[in-house]
Amino acid sequence: MADTAATPHAVELRGVSKRFGDTIAVAELDLGVRSGEFFSMLGPSGSGKTTVLRMIAGFEEVTSGSILLEGEDVTRSAPFDRPVNTVFQDYALFPHMTIAQNVAYGLTVRKTPKAEIRRRVADALEQMRLGHTGDRLPHQLSGGQRQRIALARALILRPRVLLLDEPLGALDKQLREQMQIELKQIQREVGITFIFVTHDQEEALTLSDRIAVFNQGRVEQVGTPREVYEFPQTAFVAGFLGVSNLIAPDLAERLIGESRAFTVRPERVRIAPADMAPAAHETSVLGTISELVYTGPATRYIVEGEHGLRVIAERHNDHAPNDTAPWSRGDRVRVVWATEHAAVVP
Amino acid sequence: MTSTATKPVSALLYRSRRLRLGSLLTLPLVWLVGLYIVSLALLLATAFWRVDPFTSKVTPAFQFDAFEQLLSNQAYLSTSLRTLGIALTVTLLSAAFAIPLGIYMAKIASPWMRGFLAVAITLPLWAGYLVKILAMRVTFTEEGFFNSFFGVLGISGPGFSQPTVVLTLTYLWFPYMALPVYTAIRQIPVNLFDASADLGARGWTTVRTVVMPLLMPALIAGSVFTFSLSLGDYIAAELVGGRTQMIGSIIANNINLNPPVAAAFAFVPVAFVVLYLLGTRRTGALERM
Fold first, then answer.
1. Transmembrane ranges (chain B) (predicted)?
2. Is the pLDDT of residue A220 over 50?
3. What is the ipTM of this complex?
């Protein structure tokens, strides 16, 4: 890892493994989360990201390796002894307690003075703009409101690290996008390290300072959203983050004379008439449009090219709304991209 | 339209809401009103009837002599209170066994162990009621299993006494408490346990503040069984109670000699259960469900 900060990491995992019976859920994982950053763990289901989160929280024991919180080894500590709090996927609000009692729970079990509890609960609810809901029960709130209560309940304890386990997964798309913005604002306000588990690549790209991409219990790549999107280090990362054209080494040999796999994003691929000659700095493939996919803001063209190469090109629908797409199915075309826009996959 | 011709009964039922309800409810209503409630009401009505002191003949009347006896006779009063005490103890014991067992079964045990325990709990239900009391009798009799086993250590069993009645009734009614409690614990999302620990609660605090409140409906449902079945029992007292008398014993003794007193006593457990239910309602435990 290219990480050389002098201060200890907010969370550091050293050679952490987790087995469930014969299944290896997490394999020899090294990971450092910097203090104050919004760190996402992104991957498909079963990739080990939630298990890692649960090990940081203390719900799962590690099979081997160690976990450090701000330099202190907490590998064997119980969840109630760790200065981290969790926002659960289904919120896990206590159904028999009012909203105020839910938010107060962590302070109540710590025997905080009543007056202080009342003040801090009121502040926390106010911060979430839910000050009027204190006397209600969780089932009387909407999904988005419950989500914010779960957040308030965890943040009221002022943890060093907040763990979020797919917290937006149960919300519909519009609410989810709104909550993404709020989450980011809250994180900036409170300045707490957020570790965010998600399988939604767009969400991870939108929210994170850095992303760790998980696959089969291993981290494939750690980097800023731009790094993992523009310079995927593995074929898996290229495919998992957005749509990507992955060109295998043997085809690359024919196209650019180098036997190395590379990727090029559909939005960087242009469609040109078949008889147009590409410029010197460009790579091109001849082919036939086999499919058009209209996605609203853009249209995606799937082109079956020479050498059995399939290329996806995306074109912004910046023409007049009534105009149809400039190309149609069966057209003979040339797909073109600037050679330097292709990223080599090591 | 054509269906009227092909399926006249279905068509008629479809058109008439009353017929539909009637065909659904006739049988259960005959059962419920005819046998269940009327027969109980007839027995309870006997409490107000008159017994001829010389011939012991019972004639319909409306008087409160039986209830006066019930309240003035010291032995009757103490038996009522003793029965109440036994029923409450049985209920508390059942709950005290059922809650930890339920937590273990629902959240910790392997599927195999869970199945084994579920069978172990329900197995006694398959054996007859009398068989189980006799099993306790064999265990606690003078030369029984308990004494011969623990006698080596110098411990002698309770013999046939009130504690043995409590143990026997707990043995009899435990499944009725254990099953609803186990089911309720299974329904508590595992995330709530995690969330509680995450927010700083240790195991016991989680049981007290999260598990117990969520269990209240199941505990109340289970306790209605353990409590009312214990109040009404008399065979346990008869067979393993030694000289222990319960309400059931008094009813059994009087049913031929003095039916009004027996009937008046039938009111006592009903009154206790009603008071108990009103008490549970006052706690508000059921309102948030």
1. 21-49, 84-104, 116-140, 160-179, 214-237, 257-279
2. yes
3. 0.84
In single-letter form, the type of residue at position B125 comes to L
- Per-residue pLDDT of A147-159, as tens digits, reads 999 999 999 999 9
All CATH 2.40.50.140 domain ranges of chain A, comma separated, are: 245-344
pLDDT band of residue A2 (cuts 50, 70, 90) is very low
CA nearest neighbour of A230 among A109, A342, A76, A337 = A342
Domains of chain B, CATH where assigned: 3-46 (no CATH), 69-282 (1.10.3720.10)
> At residue B1, does pLDDT exceed 80?
no
- Measured at the CA of A160, the angle between CA A156 and CA A166, to 5 degrees, comes to 75
B192–A157 C-beta distance less than 8 A: no
Question: Using CA atoms, how far apart are residues A235 and A338, in angstroms rounded to an integer?
Answer: 20
Could you give the residue range(s) of every CATH 3.40.50.300 domain in chain A? 11-240
Provide the pLDDT for residue A152.
94
Q: Å from B182 to nearest chain A CA?
A: 18
Long-range contacts of A127-131 (CB under 8 A, 24+ apart): A127/A152, A127/A186, A128/A152, A130/A99
User: Which residues of chain B does A79 touch, with a Cβ-Cβ cutoff of 8 Å?
Assistant: 194, 197-198
Residue B153: partners with Cβ closer than 8 Å, 6 or more residues away: none
Q: Which of A56, A80, A85, A101 to mutate to test the interface with B (most CBs of B within 10 A)?
A: A80
A59 touches chain B (CB under 8 A): yes
- CA separation for the pair A81, A78 (Å, rounded): 5
Q: Do A57 and B200 lie within an 8 Å CB cutoff?
A: no
pLDDT the model gives residue B3:
47
Superfamily of the domain at A245-344: Nucleic acid-binding proteins (2.40.50.140)
Q: What pLDDT was estimated at residue B153?
A: 78
CATH 2.40.40.20 fits A11-240, yes or no: no
Average pLDDT of the segment spanning B53-64: 80
Q: Which site among A55, A69, A94 would you substitute to test the B interface, given the most B Cβ atoms closer than 10 Å to its Cβ? A: A94
Residue of B95 and A5 predicted with greater confidence: B95
Contacts of B283 in chain A (CB under 8 A): none
